[in-house]
Write a structure and sequence with these properties.
Two copies of one chain form a homodimer. Chain A has about 475 residues and is of the alpha+beta class. Chain A has two domains: about 350 residues, Bira Bifunctional Protein, Domain 2 (BirA Bifunctional Protein, domain 2), CATH 3.30.930.10; about 90 residues, Rossmann fold (3-Layer(aba) Sandwich). The first copy, chain A, has 17 helices and 17 strands. In chain A, the strands form three sheets. A nine-stranded mixed beta sheet of chain A has the order 1-5-6-12-11-10-7-9-8.
C-alpha cells in the first residue's frame, strides 16, 4: 500500500484525552441540568433522507448540507435514467446520485422523530439531544464543519412556563460552568407587528433578514439594505425609532452599538410605541412580559435583556426567541440560542403542535472556557492511578506475583497498569516515570523480588514501604 | 412547504429515552473497565479523507464506504476536468466528485491519529474510543448501517501483557453486563505457518479467507473453496487434520460444528503436529501459550478456547487474534473481536510500531442483553422525580408560589417539573398522572391555594400532607 502523509478534512478535528475530558465535562454539566428540568434523551441517525433535510434551512442551508453518494453503480443508474428520459448526453441531477445527507441541526430531525412516533409520545414531550451536526460552511475561528449541539425542546404545549424553564436552564448551566453570559430575548410577533405597522407585512422575511445582520453591518447597514429592498424613508425612520427608543443610551454614529433595551422599557413600548395598537406587536410584548414576570418571582439573578433587533435567521420561529453570548472573552458570536416555533412538525404533516427549544453550542462554549481558563484542574482524563514498575525489564522477571498485584488493585477499582517496556537497569525508574508523567499517573508501585513493595508519590517524590493491603487502603480512601 | 411522510434511511435507527438509557448503561460499563486498565479516550472526526480510508479494508470494504459528495459546483468541476483531458462526452470518476467518506471503523482513524501526533504521544499509547461507524452493508438482524464500536488499542509495545489485559477486559465487561461469553483465540502466525507447511505461503490470503467462512459454510465448504483455489487433496487432508486434531470431539457430517480445541491441546499441537517444525507456527503457539499461562496465574474464570480456524477477515492482523460470542441467546455472530497488527501505522508512513486492540460491538451487545432480559430495571431515563400539579389549570392560578416550590426542589438537585397543560377541574389529577406515568415520574406534588401540600407516591397511590421542607428531605434521602 502506498504511504501517504495523512490529514483530516478541513473544519474537522481530532480530540486527544485532555480535550475529550474537557468536552465531557461540558456535556455532563448541560445534561445534568436538562435532566433536572425533566427533559429526556433521544438520539437520531447521523444520516437523514435528503427529503427530510432539504428546504428546511433556506437556500443557504441547502447549499451547506453534506450529501452522501448513493452506493451501488451510480453510473448505470444515471445511464438508465437518461435512456428512460431519452437524454442522449450524459446528464444527472444531484438527486440522481444522492438520497441522504448528514444531520444539519437537531431540530428538524426532532420534528421528524415526533411525527414518526406521534402515537407513542405523551405530550407535552420534553426531549434533550446532544449530538454532532455537519455544515459545509467556510471554517474559521469558532466555526467548524463538524460540531456538537445540545438541544432541549418541548413540543405539544403553548405554556410560556417552558420559555421560563429554558431561560433558567441557560442561567443554571452557565453558572455551573462559571461563564458570565447575557441572554437576549425578543419575540417574532413583535417583529411581525412592526412589519405590519410599517405596512410591509409582505416584506416580513426581508425585514427580519436585514435586522438579523445588525451585529455585523450596524444600523446604517440595515437601513441601506431596507432601502434597497424598497422600504421608504418614513418606514426606515420608524424602524430606527423603535430600535432606539431610548435615544440617549445609544450612539448613532457607532455602528457596533446594539439596541439593548432594558426590561423597564417593555411597558413603554407597550404604551407609547407607534406600533402599540398592532395586535401581533401587543401579543409579542405580552408574552415577554409574562415570561419576565415569572422569572422575576423566582430568579432575580438572570442577566436578560430585551433586544428588539434580535431576529435569529431561521424562519420557523413564531414566538419568543433567545440568544446567549459570553460577556467576557474574545468570542463575540452566540454560544446558544433558540425560540418558539408554532408549526415545525407541520412540514411533516402533523399540524397544530407548538414547540419551544434552545440549543447550546458545545464547541464555542469549549473555546470560551479555554480562553477564560475556567476548566477545573482536576478533570479526569481516564488515566491510571498506579503504574507498577519492576526493578528489571518485565520480560526478565517472574510475572505471576506482579500480575497478582495488578489484579488486587484493579479488583478494588483502582485504575492501574504495568510498565511493559524494556528499562535501563541502572536507572530502572527513568523510563516508567517519564511514561507515568505523560499520563499524569499519580503513583508508582515499585516491585523487586524478595523486597518490600514501595509506593512512590510521583508528584512529591515521597516514597514509602507498604504491604499491598496498605497500598489498596491508602489509594481507595 | 410540501408535506412529506417522513422516514429514516434504511439500516439507521432513532433511539427513544429508554433505548438511550440502555445504550448508555452499556457504554458506561465498557468505559469504566477501559479506564481501570489504563486506557485514555480520543475521538476522531466522522468524516475522513477518502485517501485515508480507501484500500484499508479490502475491495469489499471499499464498496461499503459511505462517500460524501464534494460541495460546490460539481458539474462545473467535472466539465473543467473533461475539457482539460479533452474528453468530449460527460464523464467523471467518483474521486472527481467525492473526497471524503464516513468512518468505517475506529482502527484506521486511530492509526492515522497516531501518525499525525507521533511527536506528542508517549509510547506505549493506550487509547480507547467509543464512536459510531458506517457501512453500506445490506441491513439484517444484528447488522446496521450506523452502529457503534468501542475500541481499546495499545500501540508501541510488543509485550504480550497487553493481549492478557485485553482478554481480561473482555472477561470483566461481560461479567459486569451479566452475559456469559466464549472468547476464541488464535494467532495469525499459526495460520501463516500452516500455509508455509502446506507449501502454499503464496496462497496465505486465499487460505485465510476460506478458513474465515467455516462458521457459515462448514468444513466441507472450506474444503470445496480450497480445492477451487488450487489446493490439492494432500493439502486439504492436512488442513482437515490440523483443524480436527481431536477427531472424537467433532462430528464430521455436521457442517455447523466448530473446531474448538481445548487449551490442553496447545502442547500437543506444538509437539506432535505436522507443522511443529515451522518457525512461524511455533512462534504463534508460543505466543498463545505465554498469554494463557499469564492468564492462568491471575484469572482462572475466563472462558477462552483456542480455535485454529479463527482467522478474522481483516488482513492487517499479524499475531494473536480474538473473537467473542455470547453463549446464550439467538445471536450467533460475534459481539467483539480484535488482535495484534505489527505494522498498521506503516500504511501512513510510520514503520515498526506494533499494536494490539479489541473492539466491542455496542449494538449487538444491546440486542443480546435485550433478548436475555439482562438490563437492570432501575436504569434512569433522565426523567423527573416530581411532577407539580395544581388543583386548577395552571393559567388560572397565581403562579409565584408554585414556581417557588419548583425552585426549591430543583435547587436541592431534585429533578422536577410543573404540569403545564389544561386539566379537567372535576378530575384535576387525571391528565397529570397519565403524563407522569408515561415518563415514569415517581411522585406528584399536589398544590392547592391555602391548603397543605400533598405528596402522592404514584406507584403505591399513597398520599401524605407534608411541608415543602419535609418533602425535600424525603426525596433527597
Amino acid at each position: 500500500m502506498a504511504k501517504e502523509k495523512p490529514s483530516i478534512p478541513k473544519g474537522t478535528r481530532d480530540f486527544g484525552p485532555e480535550e475529550v475530558a474537557k468536552r465531557k465535562y461540558i456535556l455532563n454539566t448541560i445534561e445534568k441540568v436538562f435532566i433536572k428540568y425533566g427533559f429526556m434523551p433521544i438520539e437520531t441517525p447521523t444520516m437523514e433522507n435528503l427529503s427530510t433535510l432539504t428546504g428546511k434551512y433556506g437556500d443557504e442551508g441547502d447549499k451547506l448540507l453534506f450529501k452522501i453518494l448513493d452506493n451501488g453503480d451510480i453510473f448505470k443508474e444515471i445511464k438508465e435514467k437518461n435512456a428512460e428520459q431519452k437524454i442522449s448526453n450524459f446528464e444527472f441531477r444531484i438527486s440522481d446520485i444522492s438520497g441522504k445527507g448528514l444531520r444539519y441541526d437537531l431540530t428538524v430531525p426532532f420534528a421528524r422523530y415526533v411525527v414518526m412516533n406521534r402515537n407513542e409520545i405523551t405530550f407535552p414531550f420534553k426531549r434533550y439531544q446532544m449530538q454532532p451536526v455537519w455544515r459545509a460552511d467556510r471554517p474559521q475561528k469558532g466555526r467548524y464543519r463538524e460540531f456538537w449541539q445540545c438541544d432541549a425542546d418541548v413540543v405539544g404545549s403553548d405554556s410560556l412556563l417552558h420559555e421560563l424553564d429554558l431561560i433558567n436552564i441557560y442561567s443554571e448551566v452557565f453558572k455551573c460552568l462559571g461563564i458570565e453570559v447575557e441572554i437576549k430575548i425578543n419575540n417574532r410577533k413583535i417583529l411581525a407587528g412592526i412589519a405590519e405597522g410599517l405596512g410591509a407585512e409582505n416584506k416580513l422575511m426581508d425585514f427580519t433578514v436585514s435586522l438579523d445582520k445588525i451585529d455585523k453591518i450596524g444600523i446604517d447597514g440595515v437601513e441601506k439594505e431596507l432601502r434597497e429592498k424598497g422600504f421608504d424613508e418614513n418606514q426606515i425612520q420608524m424602524v430606527r425609532d423603535i430600535l432606539f427608543t431610548e435615544k440617549n443610551s445609544v450612539n448613532y454614529s457607532d455602528n457596533t452599538i446594539k439596541s439593548n433595551l432594558s426590561l423597564s422599557h417593555l411597558s413603554m413600548l407597550k404604551n407609547s410605541s407607534k406600533f402599540r395598537d398592532n395586535e401581533k406587536f401587543k401579543k409579542g410584548i405580552d408574552e415577554i412580559e409574562t415570561v419576565l414576570e415569572n422569572l422575576n418571582s423566582t430568579n432575580k439573578t438572570v442577566n436578560i435583556k430585551l433586544d428588539i433587533s434580535l431576529a435569529r435567521g431561521l424562519s420557523y420561529y413564531t414566538g419568543c426567541i433567545f440568544e446567549v453570548a459570553a460577556i467576557e472573552g474574545s468570542l463575540r458570536s452566540s454560544i446558544g440560542g433558540g425560540g418558539r416555533y408554532d408549526n415545525l412538525t407541520g412540514i411533516f404533516g402533523l399540524e397544530g403542535v407548538s414547540g419551544v427549544g434552545i440549543s447550546f453550542g458545545l464547541d464555542r462554549i469549549y473555546d470560551v472556557i479555554e480562553e477564560l481558563k475556567l476548566f477545573p484542574e482536576t478533570l479526569s482524563q481516564g488515566s491510571s492511578k498506579v503504574l507498577i514498575c519492576a526493578n528489571d525489564s518485565i520480560e526478565n522477571i517472574e510475572l505471576a506475583p506482579v500480575l497478582q498485584l495488578l489484579s488486587k488493585l484493579r479488583n478494588e477499582g483502582i485504575a492501574s497498569e504495568i510498565y511493559t517496556e524494556k528499562i535501563n537497569v541502572k536507572k530502572p525508574l527513568e523510563k516508567p516515570i517519564k511514561y507515568a508523567s505523560s499520563k499524569k499517573i499519580a503513583y508508582a508501585l515499585i516491585y523487586s523480588e524478595n523486597e518490600p513493595l514501595k509506593l512512590k508519590n510521583l508528584e512529591t517524590g515521597f516514597q514509602v514501604e507498604l504491604t499491598i493491603e496498605a497500598i489498596v487502603e491508602k489509594l481507595i480512601s
